[in-house]
Amino acid sequence: MKEQVLHLLKKQQSEFVSGELICKNLGVSRTAVWKHIQALRAEGYEIVSQPRAGYRLAGVPDRLYPQEILSGLKTEFMGRRIFYFAQAPSTNVLARELALAGAPDGALVVAEEQTGGRGRLGRGWFSPAGKGIWCSLILYPPVNPAAAPPLTMLTAVAVARAVRLVAGLAPGIKWPNDLLLEGKKICGILTEMSAEMERINYLIIGTGINVNIENFPGEIANAATSLKACAGRTVSRVELLQAYLQEMEQLYRIWIKEGFAPVLKLWKDLCVTLQRPVRVSSLKESIEGWAEDVDEEGNLVLRLADGTVRHITAGEVSLRPF
Amino acid sequence: MDLREIRELVKLIDQTGISELSIESNGMRVAIKKNPGGPQGAEERPVPAAFAPPAETKETAKFIPVASPMVGTFYRAPAPDAPPYVQPGDIVQKGQTLCLIEAMKMMNEIKAEVTGEVVEILVENGEPVEYGQPLFYLRPVS
Questions:
Q1: Are residues B33 and B65 in the same domain?
Q2: Contact A314 B111 (CB under 8 A)
Q3: Do A122 and B131 touch (CB under 8 A)?
Q4: Which residue(s) pair with A180 in the sheet?
Q5: pLDDT category of residue B42 using cuts at 50, 70 and 90
Q6: Inter-chain contact B106–A151, Cβ cutoff 8 Å?
Q7: Is the dihedral of CA A55, A60, A66, A72 positive or negative?
Q8: Largest alpha-carbon pair distance within chain A?
Q9: Taking the complete model, does pTM exceed 0.95, yes or no?
Q10: Would B50 be classed as within a structural domain?
Q11: Are B87 and B126 in a shared domain?
Q12: Chain A to chain B, count of Cβ pairs less than 8 Å apart?
């Protein structure tokens, strides 16, 4: 009901909408309309009321409210069900619980702030309130678990395309799924899967996009930047999230239907890791070599100094000169 | 009599109830004696215990291997400084996380499919694993 009141106000843009019209449209009393207006104001919407003229929407808060994301979202299933949190420990953790409780395919968990934002292997992820997109998608891909890993690369392509569309910036992808601008990270992706040998129970794609962060604390400042810092202007989080969901749905469908090859082609066009010397670090070793290519499964093809070729499945790539 | 003919003879004896046969022809004597205990030599040569893979011994026949559903890197703990998910001797519940497999930054939690004791961990932390490679042996407990 509250959403319907908001919808009516948005339809009139900056014009006044009479209380009577809202009553008639929704079939409720004046008192009920007033209560909904108050609730919207409490959420941060600026609504001017004027005797006889009615109500006018003067400002929309910079929040990732479900009604804002859904308004104008052109997807069929990606992000159609949204779980919104002003604050959450970690959207991936909540998404997992929701998946176990039967959340629908493409459901989105989004938080304004994460108090325990996580990266890979227990690392933290700086997620200040209202400054980024901290979200997780819940998916049930109908593929074999062994075929699922390239989805992380697909996600990087989706975010890169959304950033280009909404912020006018062209991030590069560092293998397999980090997004860089000016050599620093603007997006991190943490994908977690629950699977049996032949079947995926659920898959969670956590995405942290540094949108309007102005200051990064301590050491993070050397490794991370934000879209605002690079574009020199505030970027709409709602528009960016919508674009991400739309790109994601489109690419995901291509992947399910045609496999990874067409997505890999897009990925390669955005990649900044190939045809250069890199260092790949893992728990066991750190190896240097020439990043020659990425194979059809998404593994990094690394040529070592002695001429041997390694196909790398997991590891941290560093591009810095060394 | 040549090798081909002897082979035919062996086959023939195998298919019949005859257990012993000796033939003399052109100054050559061939004696064929069938293994006791029935046709086809039902008794197999025992595998020396030292070479037998664990899965084939009497004891480990009751163990359930946990295989990797994908190619990737094996992690025993959620973070490098965190304690391992499980240790040999631990009793794990069905659905409990045993390890992580990482591929292309996708983290896959491998769960126990039965309630049981962790008998053996077959892969070292940080090692690459292949599709279908056994990672653990579990002994089911009720």
A1: no
A2: no
A3: no
A4: A172, A185
A5: very low
A6: yes
A7: positive
A8: 83
A9: no
A10: no
A11: yes
A12: 88
